[in-house]
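Help! Submission page says 'invalid entity' but I think these are all valid:
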Amino acid sequence: MKQVLVALVEDKPGVLNRIASLFRRRNFNIESIVAGHSETPGTSRITIATDEEEHLRRNIIRHNLLKLINVIDVVDVTDRPCVIREQALIKVRADGSIRGEVGDLVKIYRARIVDVSTASLIVEVTGEPDKIDSLIEVLTPFGVVEIMRTGKVAMIRGAINSSDQEEVIRWKNGNGRNHKQAKK
Amino acid sequence: MANSKRMLKGAEIVWECLVREGVETVFGYPGGAILPVYDALANYSDRIHHVLVRHEQGAAHMADGYSRASGKVGVAMATSGPGAVNLITGMATAMMDSSPMVCITGQVPTNVLGSDAFQETDITGATLPVTKHSYLVMEVDSLANVIREAFYIARTGRPGPVLIDIPKDVQNDVTEFEYPTDPIDLPGYHPPEQATDEEVAAVLELINGADRPLVLSGHGVLMSGARDALIAIIEKADIPVTTTLLGNDSLPHSHPLNLGMMGMHGNASANHAIQEADLIIACGMRFDDRVTGKLKTYSPNSRKIHIDIDASELNKNVRVDVAINADLATVLAQIKPGVKQRKRAEWLKTIQAWQDDATQRDVLQLESETLLGSQVIRSICDNIPDNALIVTDVGQHQMLEAQYYSHEQPHTLITSGGLGTMGFGFPAAIGASFHRADREIWAIVGDGGFQMTLHELATAVQEQANVKIAIINNGYLGMVRQWQQMFYNAHYAETPISSPDYMKLAEAYGVPGYRVDRREDIEPTLKGARRHKGPVMIEFVVEQHEMVYPMVPAGADLHKMIRRPHPEETNV
C-alpha cells in the first residue's frame, strides 16, 4: 500500500516549498500533495501521498518532514483506519445525443454533472481514488477532453484529531513523555 | 541593559539582538543591500568586532570555525545577490557537520522583490537544502523575534546554519524596539531529551550481554558534552571505541580502549573490530558512506544500538536493533548505573593483534630520504601543546592528520568532514583564532586547498590572527591523484598543480615564511615559527607520491582494505 501522511504545519509563506524541496533533495517521490486551512487558525493541514512502500523508508520520510521547523506534526495514516478521498473534474465530449447515457453512468458513481455546453459536459466526482479511476475508465470511450484531480485527502476515523494521535496513544500506554516531545 | 522601549531602525535592531545573543565577533563583507546594517555598526563596535574578509565564502568558513572552536553560534554577514550566494559553500559545510551558525544577508527592497532587481537572488530559496531553517523578514516588527529564533534553532537540537535575509527597506524601517523576553514559541520544534525506560532497558540488556562490543564515537559525543560519561562507561565495561573523523578528538588518543579512526582511511584494527563485533553502540554519528563501506556487508554479525539527536538519521543507512532519538549525554547518564563492570580480555586481545600488525606496517618505521606528510604532522603534534587547536583542509593531509596527530583533549580538531570542502581550513582557522587569542592554532592545509582561499591571508594579517599555516606541498591534488593511481591506471588528469613561490607570497602579505624540505629541519622550524605571534607560513615540500593507507575503496567491504605492504613483504 502506498504511503499517506497527514501533516499539521504553520501557515507561513514558503512552507509548501520547503516540503516539496525536501522530497526532491531526499529523492522521495510525491504522488500528490493537498494543502488547506485546518481547524486551528494559523495552521494548515496537508495530505501527502508518496510511492514509498517500505516501512523504514516511510519512517525516514516522516522524520525528515518533522525536521522542518514549520512542520508541527506528521502522522503516517497508511496503516490506520482512515477515510481517504479525492475529488476530480472530468470534461467529457458529449453532445445532446449521448448526454443521457453519460448522466446514467454518473449517477451510478454518485457523481454530478456541474457544467454543460453544446459539445461537452463536466463531471464532478468525489470518492476513493479507485472509484475515480474507474469512472474515468468508463467515460473514456465518450472522449475525455480534460481531467483535473485534487490528489488524496485523508482523515483518521474516530474522535481523535489526526495530529494528536501519537500523543494520545503514548499517553494511553502510560509511556509519559511530556507534550514537548510529541514530535518524536 | 535596560529593556525599555525605544524607536530603532531595523539595522540597529540587528546589532541590538546580536549583542543580546552574546555575539562578540561578526565575519562579513559590506555591499549595497546591507549598507544600513553596516552604517549602524559604528554604534556597536565597542561590543562587537567586525572582521572584514576578502571573499564571503571566507566569512562563512570563519563563522563556522569560530563556532566550532567556541561552541557559540558563529555569525557571517553579506550583501544580497553575489554576496549571499558566496556564503552557500560555507552554509553547506556547516550543515553537513552540524555547526551552529547564523548568516545575515541584505536583500533588495520589498517593493522590487521578485523583479530581478540589481543584485537580487532568492537566497532563502537557493539555500533551502543547506540550511536548518531560513527567514525572509518582510516587516521590521518581526525582526527581533526572528533573530532570537534563529540563534535558538542554530544552537539547539542538531545544530546547523540558519539564514536571515533582510530587505533593505526593512533595515531602514523604524519601530518601537523591545527585546522579546517571552519564551520562544516554535510549535514545530522540540529537540528530543531523554530515552524511555524501555529503551534504556533494551540498551543495557545488549551491552551487558555482549562479548565483543564496540562503541562508535562521533561528533555528537563532543557536541552533546557526553565525553566524560562515555569514558566512564567504556572503562567500567571494558568496551573499545573507534571514532569518526569529526569524533577524532572525542576520546584521548592515548586511551588504551581507543582504536582510533574508523572508515575509508581508518585504522585497520578499528575496521576489523567493526566487522567482528557482536554489538555496535553508535553514539552521535550517522553511518556516513565513508565509515561504512558497503552497507550489505557492514558489521554483519552484530546487534546494533544507535543513539542520535536527529531522528531522521536512525535506520537511514544502517538498520539497527535499538534506535534512540535523544540527547546523547542524557542517555549515557541514564544507562551508566546499569552497565555491568566486566573485563573483555579476549576481545581486546584479538584487537591488539590487528593493532600490532598495523604498527609494523607504519610508514614512520621506514627509513626514507624524502620528507613525508605523515612525518611532518607527527612532528607538529610532538612539538606543540596538547590544547593547541588543529584546523585542517581536505585531502591527503587531512587523513594523515587524522592518523598521525594524537588528540588528547576534546575540541582540538576542526575539519570539514561531511562536505569535504577544500578551501575550508585556512579561513576556519582564522575564525577560530577569534575565540581565544592565546591559544595556539595550526592550519594544516594542502597546496591545492590553500590556493582556494589564500586571499584570506590579507584578513589574517589585518587582524593579526594567531594562525600558523603549515602547507603540506606535494605539488599534486594528492587525494585525487591517489584515486587516479589506484583506480584510473595512474592517469593523472589535471592533478599536478603548481603553486606560487610561498616565500614571496608570505613576504608580499608581510607574514614570516619558512620552507622545509629536509626531515632534520622540521623541529627547528616549528620552534622558530611558534615564537612569532600572529600569522606565520611554513611550506613543507613533501614526497609527491605518498599514499594514505589503509584505504577502503568506495563501496567495498569495510574489512577489504588496501594496506601498506608489510615490511617483510617488501624491500622499500
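Support: the input was valid. A stray whitespace character was the problem, and the output above is from the cleaned input. The interface with chain B takes residues 9-10, 13-14, 17-18, 21, 25, 56, 59-60, 63-64, 66-73, 175, 177, 180-184 of chain A (CB under 8 Å).
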